[in-house]
Specification:
Layout lengths: L1 E7 L16 H16 L5 E5 L11 H11 L3 E8 L11 E6 L6 H18 L3 E7 L2 H4 L5 E8 L5 H5 L2 H19 L27 H15 L10
Parallel strand pairs: 1-2, 1-3, 3-6, 4-5
Antiparallel strand pairs: 4-6
Helix pairs in contact: 1-6, 3-6
Length: 236
């Protein structure tokens, strides 16, 4: 079993985390997270834990997020973000993937980040800023390999077009999930289409009898042997 933490960074009300036009970073982060979640759910032996607030209304403190992940004994921590430079529109841009910079640097995180970054570049169609290292809380305080993804600049005149495109954000999430799938060599569940449609029911007909008494005897036998709910219906 691979236990994966997913984290849409910040919250809707977090000061400063928005485009110059007021679009909240969490909204972009959440779209990516949902795409990651949907992709990984069809793979076998995967458990997912979301540590941010799914509504975005509460900015869950970073310590709570990392403490929860450590207590859950996660195998990997994925944090989804989108960057900003000056907070006003500019010509910078690009995507980057971070792991921890310091004595606690994790080689597994580095390997995963190197799988994520090229896929991220292709999915977003933005400049490749590479795999980088930084001393950030979610990278430092997690006991498992942790990767933080910056999927583009919210204050970039070029990047914002990709960030405002739901298909690009979905592609970003799927690209990150594909890197995780490749790293852990995950396999799809044996069947993702066998779930019964709850809106339909099916009737089992067991036989036709010449007398009601014979039908009742057979029905009673089925009730006792299988615990089924069995009805005897008279046909005209």
């Amino acid at each position: 079993m691979v236990k994966i933490v997913i984290d849409a960074g910040h919250g809707v009300l977090t000061p400063g985390k928005q485009t110059p036009d007021g679009e909240k970073e969490w909204m972009f982060n959440n779209e990516v997270l949902l795409a990651v979640q949907a992709k990984l759910k069809i793979y076998d032996k995967v458990e997912l834990l979301r540590v941010d607030d799914p509504t975005g209304k509460i900015d869950v403190p970073l310590k709570i997020r990392t403490d929860h992940s450590n207590a859950w004994k996660a195998d990997v921590y994925l944090s989804f973000h989108h960057n900003a430079n000056t907070g006003v529109w500019g010509d910078w841009g690009g995507v980057e993937t971070y792991t921890f910079e310091g004595n606690g640097s994790n080689s597994k995180a580095d390997k995963l980040a190197k799988l994520i970054q090229p896929r991220l570049v292709r999915a977003m169609g933005l400049r490749d800023r590479g795999v980088r290292k930084k001393n950030l809380h979610v990278l430092r305080e997690t006991k498992m390999p942790a990767v933080l993804i910056e999927g583009g600049f919210m204050d970039s005149r070029t990047d914002i077009e990709a960030l405002r495109n739901p298909q690009r954000l979905k592609a970003q999430g799927e690209a990150i999930a594909e890197a995780v799938i490749a790293y852990y060599q995950l396999k799809k569940k044996s069947s993702t289409t066998s779930t019964i449609n709850a809106s339909k029911t099916f009737r089992l007909v067991t036989g036709t009898f010449l007398s009601k008494e014979d039908a009742e005897v057979s029905a009673d036998r089925l009730r006792k042997q299988h615990g089924w709910t069995v009805y005897v219906k008279e046909e005209s």
